Amino acid sequence: MADLLLVGWLPTSEIFLRALEDSVPKVQLAQMSEPDFAGIIILGGAIEGGEIAVDRGEVSIYSAAERVTKAFELIRKFPDLPYIFSGFSGRLSPKGISEADAFKQLVAEQGLPDKNAHYENQSRNTYENVILMKHMILELGAESVKEADATPKPWLLITSASHMYRSVKIFQKQGIEVIPVPVDYQTGNRLRWGRFDLEDGMQNWNKLMHEVVGLLAYWITRKI
Fold first, then answer.
1. Domains of the chain (ranges plus CATH)?
2. pLDDT tens digit sequence for 13-66
3. For labelling alongside 7, which of 31, 35, 56, 166 has CA 20 to 30 A away?
């Protein structure tokens, strides 16, 4: 009974997940303009590539669809900025097309500009995202700096709010400045004290523990 209460009574998971989602505050992009940025980075984790996309000829999007929709919004808003989508698959034995190739297909289907599109389609986790993108980030960032004494511009980083803290730490460890654009929030400003939902509770705990384990593993291996 206590286990069901811990999982299903939403405030028990929301209070910790909300703290994680709020650990990296939102930046007011409305107060900034295209020349302030070097480009846009979109981390994978929201797209179903693999065999299903090949068999059905359609790309499916997970519950973290805001990673994709926010990317589309910013690509339209800043058409001259380069953007990089990073991700192969989070599966242990991935088959079929990569997330990056699936995103490329979505870009074409949406009629979005692709002249500044770049893709990294080998990474299977957040650390590999950063490491395998780093050379592209540095090269494209250098192109955006025209004055010899100018400092590199930061990149806009799109990922889920619960995943943002770990992502930012990895980029910082690699000396890459990013401006967080968190999406896919699972908690609100108020705890839902009267709500009991085993499905929502399990999803919250799963997201929370995934990040806690990831942070601990990356801290032990000095990746953050």
1. 26-192 (3.40.50.620)
2. 778 889 999 999 888 888 888 889 999 999 988 776 656 666 566 667 776 789
3. 166
Answer for the pair 104, 138: CB distance below 8 angstroms, yes or no: no
Rounded alpha-carbon distances, angstroms, from residue 3 to 8, 168, 181: 8, 33, 35
Residue 108: both structure tokens together: 């074409």
Q: Which amino acid is at 145?
A: V
From residue 213, give the alpha-carbon distance in Å to each of 8, 47, 147, 219. 21, 23, 43, 10
Identify whether the C-beta of residue 35 lies closer than 8 Å to the C-beta of residue 79.
no
